[in-house]
Amino acid sequence: MLVLNFYTSFKIDQDTVAINLAGRQRYVSQRIARTLLELDAARAAGQSYRNETLAELRAGAKVFDLSHAAFKKGDTVPGGDGKPVFLDAVTSDRGRQLEAQVDALWAPYFEKLQPLMRDGFSTENLSAALAYSQANNIRLLNVANDFVTETQAIGASRASTLRMVQTGGIVLALLNFAFILMKFLRRLQTSDAAIEAANEENREILQSVREGLFLITRDFKLGSQLSQSAHALFGRSLAPGQDFFALLEPLLTDKALSDARGYVQLLFAPHVKEALVQGINPLSEVEALVKNRLGDQVIRHLSFHFNRVVEGGAVRHLLVTVQDISPRIELERKLHEERQRSQKEFEMLLKAVDADQAMLRQFVERAETSLLEVNDMLRSTSGAQGEAAILKRIDEARRRVHALKGDAATLGLETLASQAHAFEDTLDRIRQGGAGDLGQALVALPLPLEDLLHKVGSLKSLVSQQRAQPVPASATSINTLLAGLAEEVARDAGKKVMPVVAMGALLDLAPAQADLAREIAVQLVRNAVAHGIEAPVTRAAAGKAEAGRIAVQLARSDADWLLTVRDDGAGLSAPRIRRKLLELGWYTAEQLEAFDDRQVVSHIFKPGFSTAQGVSLYAGRGVGLDLVQANVQQLGGRITLASTPGEHTEFRVRFAA
């Protein structure tokens, strides 16, 4: 009786192993199908295959094949805990029939999986395996289910035999029967626990994947299983049965939503080849305004990919994969900006090569010295010095940077001029109180300043390579550069000018005087074009030539030098300047009534005053004439202004010879 009990119990244990491995075989078949879908989704998204997915596919195929072979002939295979267990061959008629059906489905399946078991497989290999999986997965699952049922039936029959033997035995046999029965029930619980563990793994997968994964039905409803990430990607809680296009409606325009509906309908049409329509996916990149975990509205870029779930030749569902591609989009934007920056720097160096080398060399020396002085000035400024002292330092820095911008624009170095312009923006924000505490705001200024110094350093390296044969600046080059500056400012403002420049005498000045006089001329020329010369239509209506005339001259008399800049533009309007002073809040209407026109016009030299409608590269900051006045003071000279509204404006700067 004990031997018979032992033998029957042993067979029951073998049957339990068979039940577990049959259940595992069924589960593994579905994991293989899922990993093929994941690999195909990665292929469709143009991404590299994940090592974890490949490892899962290969391990699953190997385990299924080993278990299948053991069920046919009997063999030792890895158990659920990874330890080897011996599996008897299936001997029942029904079991052999089912195993033959599994073999008929698995053999070609395993053959198509062989290329995927090694690295370097092609998309055709993946497509072939996926196509076979989608066509035969349900059949394989059904046969596997029947096979599990058969192994369970075999186990149940042995349990019945055991009960019959123990029923006819003695009390000891009954006790043995109770013991074995309890053991058998525990094994059944273990089997159920294994199945529940498999279901739990599916739930964990849906909770852990970063992509949004869900199925949509033929009536465009969400399936019952959704990955946890899907809720975060949409910025709202999703629920099975929700309408897919209702979720998309807040994210898309009406046309984009209509295109998406048409595309999804195409995918549900079995006669339309899926590969042919993947390239017209209107949801491959969608900009969406969603809420993050803190409840704040943020912009995300989402990518939707669709894969068919086919059964019996009909498309039952679409597997939707949603990915947040915002980091990729942001990286592309930064790369684009970096390419543009590099291209502009390259263009700047090309223009520097073509520029007058003497003028370029002088510019580099002046720019480097000026920027280093600005750097020292800013670093030595602290909040403890008081607001008035800090503002004075900022105004001085603005003048120097503005002068550098003017010189850079004169030489055609637009990249450097634009960067100096951006630095002026930062100084203006601090000056106007938009940056909070002045002392703290100044701490960050050396960073953009270092970038300017870096660009000047690049020009310095270029100049140093060309110093072997230094050529002094010529009167022609100075005149040409100033005339070119006037024409460039005019083009930017949609105007036309005819500059007449005679600044050759600048070469006769001492270097320090020449620098100050040149900066004055540059600022007055820019000011004349930006503020004085009218648009061609306005000039034509006033009976003037479309192209405004600007005359620039530096001449020497016995006692002094005279720099003249004259334009035949709109002239200065005292009423307009009054209105601007009132808008800026510098004076009240009553205070302005006490000023005569001469006093009102004199405000054009004040820091921060400009009648321009907005800030551009050439006007609007109120720094140009402030710089002119500061340079005139350094020259020990004086500046006079004559203007007739509608006719002309003339600046005359006189300083000692």
Q: What structural class do helix, strand and pairing data support?
A: alpha+beta
Q: CA-to-CA gap between the ends?
A: 133 Å
Report the C-alpha radius of gyration, rounded: 42 Å
What is the strand tally?
Answer: 12
- Tally of DSSP helical segments: 22
Q: Into which percentage range does the β-strand content fall?
A: 5-15%
Helix content: 55-70%
* Sheet with the most strands, sense and barrel status: 5 strands, antiparallel
How confident is the prediction overall: mean pLDDT?
80
Q: Which stretches of 5+ consecutive residues score pLDDT under 50?
A: none
Strand order of the largest sheet: 4-3-7-6-5
Structural shape: rod-shaped
Key structural traits:
single chain; 657 residues; alpha+beta; 5-stranded antiparallel β-sheet; 5-stranded mixed β-sheet; 22 helices; 61% helix; 14% strand; rod-shaped
What does this structure look like?
The chain has 657 residues and is α+β, with helices and mostly antiparallel strands. 61% of the residues lie in helices and 14% in strands. The strands form three sheets. Strands 4-3-7-6-5 form a five-stranded antiparallel beta sheet. It has a five-stranded mixed beta sheet with strand order 8-9-10-12-11, with helices on one face. A two-stranded antiparallel ribbon has the order 1-2. A hairpin with a 2-residue loop joins strand 6 (297-311) and strand 7 (314-324). Helix 11 runs antiparallel to helix 15 (446-464) and helix 17 packs antiparallel against helix 22. The longest helix has 45 residues, at 123-167. The protein is rod-shaped, with a radius of gyration of 42 Å. The N and C termini lie far apart (133 Å). The relative contact order is 0.05.
